[in-house]
Amino acid sequence: MGSADSKLNFRKAVIQLTTKTQPVEATDDAFWDQFWADTATSVQDVFALVPAAEIRAVREESPSNLATLCYKAVEKLVQGAESGCHSEKEKQIVLNCSRLLTRVLPYIFEDPDWRGFFWSTVPGAGRGGQGEDDDENARPLAESLLLAIADLLFCPDFTVQSHRRSTVDSAEDVHSLDSCEYIWEAGVGFAHSPQPNYIHDVNRMELLKLLLTCFSEAMYLPPAPDSGSTNPWVQFFCSTENRHALPLFTSLLNTVCAYDPVGYGIPYNHLLFSDYREPLVEEAAQVLIVTLDHDSATSASPTVDGTTTGTAMDDADPPGPENLFVNYLSRIHREEDFQFILKGIARLLSNPLLQTYLPNSTKKIQFHQELLVLFWKLCDFNKKFLFFVLKSSDVLDILVPTLYFLNDARADQSRVGLMHIGVFILLLLSGERNFGVRLNKPYSVRVPMDIPVFTGTHADLLIVVFHKIITSGHQRLQPLFDCLLTIVVNVSPYLKSLSMVAANKLLHLLEAFSTTWFLFSAAQNHHLVFFLLEAFNNIIQYQFDGNSNLVYAIIRKRSVFHQLANLPTDPPAIHKALQRRRRTAEPLSRTGSQEGASMEGSRPAAPAEPGTLKTSLVATPGIDKLTEKSQVSEDGTLRSLEPTSQQSSADGSPTAEEPGQAWREQRRLSSASASGQWSPTSEWVLSWKSKLPLQTIMRLLQVLVPQVEKICIDKGLTDESEILRFLQHGTLVGLLPVPHPILIRKYQANSGTAMWFRTYMWGVIYLRNVDPPVWTRLAAGAQRRKDSVRVT
């Protein structure tokens, strides 16, 4: 039958289904087979020939027919999985049913009355071979569907290479087949790389798209902060009920990490040959991050048979969570596996940064957001992987592309989620000492970023990009300022030599955040000044030698520190400062900056444009919820500081807790100020002004400024380089206050970020699946829910 005839017959069947007012019996195979048996329709055909309005019409007017359609389609998939799909006709039926269910499922999920349908039991679908009449053991339709998909993903000659030596051999028995021998790609726990097969990749992709659609019920439910909001589809699929859990997890991970989109080094190769692997890799990455959607703060731990985890998994560790995908990921431990994963993710993240002399000669991938989520999951669930990443300079292969994406997305409000995930990753990494140490490596590879040219280290790159985000991003990024400066504080004790460009950027931020109108305009703005002062103190106390550029910048901008020390606290001065704010259009003014108007990147943040954010995100927790504070001991170990700690550091600057004592109250005040209810008082300014950690810097200025001025007068110096040379050989040993303890704010898992990641992840998947558009629009209730949650 020709393709046109197939489409016509399929369309006729759809029309019949929508016009029949009486239920069609499930036994009427002649009717139901029209949807899958005699047609050869592509997934795009199915989406075009089954309009959304008609699916909804059947759901409302002939619900039993929609139920039967779903039941029959699942039944065909189960039959295909049982038989092994040996004939071409069986394979075509499986693909047609898969496409039809991918089309229909979102319209089941959007209606609250239908959401339980797939979890209702079907007569005759027993668990473990029980009799058909045993209703207690009847298997819900969702479980039958998920198990069939899992079986079909390891179906010889359909989705994996057959191991038969000749056509004379009998077909492999799908029930006795060990799917660990059919893993799709070499990598973690599997050394053999099967021959690439276009047909297998396409079939896998179609089944993974259906699997992702099954998991997408979460998209239609309001975000729930409680741990009981586990996705039942993911929960079952990643349980011991799925005998293919380990090989499928490994197949997905290896397929993503082994992918090389460059085109084997031949320029323009991607234009000559279509890359059928990339769609599969994208789908694999999306399924992987959804199956790994797990709140690590609330893990249950059943025993997993050590024999099933293979040598790649660490059987000596505790069993881990019920979700086997999370369990397996958390137990990967071999260095060669870590290297494979890290190299793969770094290679793919760096792909958009590739520069060649031939424009557009290399293929650019588009799934970097999924890769960032995957990297986050790996670090969050497998601490051995995190330590491996930080063990060498390889972490910089993650840092540079992450900074590239942050800089690139800073002015695009539709990519505010990308900004958050990038900053969260850097916050997680910055909690480890090794990250700060690695940043001292010289930055020599020039990535195409619109930032000032500098000669320096990766630390300089980080600071320059952060400055750019803060001064020329958009207003929705302001909640990230705390995170950005926390990262700077965390790494500051280890930065051996900042460039003049980076030093000036930090001083410019302090200058901007120290203006009275900014300090008095919101209840928590002064925290940004505390963070910057803490970073300066760390560098002065622990890395004075080698940081003459920063010391010189501090001396040049000494008036900023004196202004902070003499900050007005009387009501008339506070009122005057706020009046000045109303007359000043720029949120980050450059007034008084010696770098003047030519200072690159110091533009005001643009106001939020309505309607540019394509998907909605729940609010991110404040920095106090995102991190826990630890003190570095003399032996280099971290000691967690209890929230009740009232220690004061030696130089009188606030301890880890003092700036954070009133965070809850500050957040409340902040929201009040946003609604116009809050106004600063003298008592409020005095409460934090007295804790400004200025002693170390004031002592530095007291010692060095007269020396520098004397040299300039005595030797008639006007050249910066001479002054810097003097500062390089200077010392403050014995002149500064006793060094304060190093405080690190480490990321801590919490339900707030778990929920944020869930909404972000589904937002990315929703926007990335447009051909065909699996989720064209959300149901009205879900849409209202999405519209009501915004990044704050």
From TrEMBL:
Residues 642-652 have a biased composition (Polar residues). InterPro entries: Hid-1/Ecm30. Signal peptide: none annotated. Residues 572-677 are annotated as: Disordered. It comes from the Eukaryota. This is HID1 domain containing. It comes from Felis catus. The lineage of its organism: Eukaryota, Metazoa, Chordata, Craniata, Vertebrata.
